[in-house]
Amino acid sequence: MSAAEGPLVVGVDTSTQSTKALVVDVATGRVVASGQAPHTVSSGAGRESDPRQWWDALCEALRQCGDAAHEAAAVSIGGQQHGLVTLDAQGEPVRPALLWNDVRSAPQARRLTEDLGGAKFWAERTGSVPAASFTVTKWAWLAENEPEAVRATRAVRLPHDYLTERLTGEGTTDRGDASGTGWWASSTEAYDPEILAHVGLDQALLPRVVRPGEVAGTVHRHDLPFSKGTLVAPGTGDNAAAALGLGLRPGTPVLSLGTSGTVYAVSRHRPADPTGTVAGFADAHGDWLPLACTLNCTLAVDRLAALLGLDREAVEPAGGVTLLPYLDGERTPNLPHAAGLLHGLRHDTTAGQILQAAYDGAVHALLAALDLVLDADADRSAPLLLIGGGARGTAWQQTVRRLSGRPVQVPEARELVALGAAAQAAGLLTGEDPAAVARRWDTARGPVLEPVERDGATMDRISGVLSDAAALLERGTD
Predict the structure, then answer these.
(1) CA torsion sign, 386 to 392 to 408 to 335?
(2) Which of 267, 351, 352, 453 shows the smallest number of beta carbons within 10 Å?
(3) What CATH number matches the domain at 247-410+447-474, 1.20.120.450, 3.90.180.10, 3.30.420.40, 3.30.70.60?
(4) Given 25, 177, 192, 238, which residue is catalytic?
(5) Is 192 tagged catalytic?
(6) What is the model's pTM?
(7) What is the CATH topology of the domain spanning 8-234?
């Protein structure tokens, strides 16, 4: 390892599929060491993971970082949002965590919305209308289906909270991740006693919400490659961490292409969308992060490519083919029981056209929500920041350009969640706003792809098929 110019920090991204750790030089933003280890996720009706896998993966990722991790002065955890982690009196998982993309709690989401004043109540109180991904719906599902697990639970955590607590020995979270639970009120920036009472959750089981810039604790374990007294930042959810990692200013739109797809922007105004399209999340440093999310993005398109026996880049102009790639149900639009739908096949339709239609269908919902995410005074001609695993794929880039009609900027930095966590850790040492740290590191630097004429006809065709097939999609395949 070459000599660093400033102190070192560790930023962690514990995602659905793996945990990554970066050791970053605070002075320059240079990544001096990195490590990564995988997780497993259950298949079938639910999507679950044993939280102990995340800890083992973190330990392995840090081991791969070598001596650099031992030199770090601070660490922060960015993690997948919404997951329900239930712990017993010894701090061990009661059962596997229910992950964000587990849609079994869709009936509970509907009932919670109806029981407590409807969508307008939830949007005004919490900033979001409950969807199956939200933690409050998962707790309601657990209480209904596994009451013995609820009775055994002595602490309720989110994925990033679980790892932070294992580092510090203290139960903490942050406003960004707490805002995705459904029981944290964005209107008061506190846990909501009415919602907690309705779902039978004692606030004493929840972590303390640490303020932006506050130290969550220090590393108290001796089995990790950290020095005694290493500071631990609050951490945050993955989207809020990526926003920090980009150094986002208000109004700059981001489209993230990962296992899920998201579109978001930082705003000075607290969001409250009663349609449920936009989740009114908090960000990690005092502003807001209105966000729309789709469950089906790169994973769904890759699955279609595999079914067709094609490389993921082997697309052809789709012509009149429409494919709604709702392989795991969907969140935007809110169709948790939906399955994929293909319309417009002809004798001369090619596999490459079907694959392009899958890309179009995945991007359509995100772009349709973009105007709802942005403030009214946002510059609609500003480049769209394209991030996530799909951002470097030519087919993804060209689809986003064609359907949006906007310039597209692809940051060169790859691990933006981990970089955002590192920037948050660096802020503890320097006193800077973490987003300002990331701007100093120039993390958003990357080529800008010029705009092309917007393909409004394809956007309209997909919207039409979606509207016409609404009853079929609501019914699913049951």
Answers:
(1) negative
(2) 453
(3) 3.30.420.40
(4) 238
(5) no
(6) 0.90
(7) Nucleotidyltransferase; domain 5 (3.30.420)
